[in-house]
């Protein structure tokens, strides 16, 4: 119902629920989000808000640093020609929300990037996948390869590890076709019959002269 556009409830434990909503009127490309934390056991309710660029695609819950504090990750998707992703991350310690700075893609990670990100949680870590294009402009074509990046958390800072090889490295790692020169067959000396016949006749003539 307007002005709300998105809602997802995440229950991390009994009595601990996070309701994530987005809202706004007018242009759908801009708006705001809020995270409603309900601690029904302690009868405490807190609200965390922020400006939103794009629309919310999904929300994820994790404990990437295994400290027992829930992390809420909001994935937003831009509405322009390049559907790039933006992550709004918070770690909740009891009723306190700590905003985390999600790292941007490096220049090498952005090579061939045209959005269409896919995020998911695996073994408590955030995994990011997106298709690789042969260029970065609107005429780009997908290469068929994907880039995969893993995000963790340490001391409230994100750790980044690229799981897949870069598209350039993949090409370099292809086996190079080596040309193996085969040994040339040994040449056999073929004596023609006509040559043999001439030599035989010459020997006979020599014998007759001696006689």
Automatic annotation (TrEMBL):
Domain of life: Bacteria
Compositional bias (Basic and acidic residues): 164-175
Residue span of region Disordered: 164-211
Compositionally biased tracts (Basic residues): 190-211
Protein name, per record: FG-GAP repeat protein
Organism encoding this protein: Mucilaginibacter pankratovii
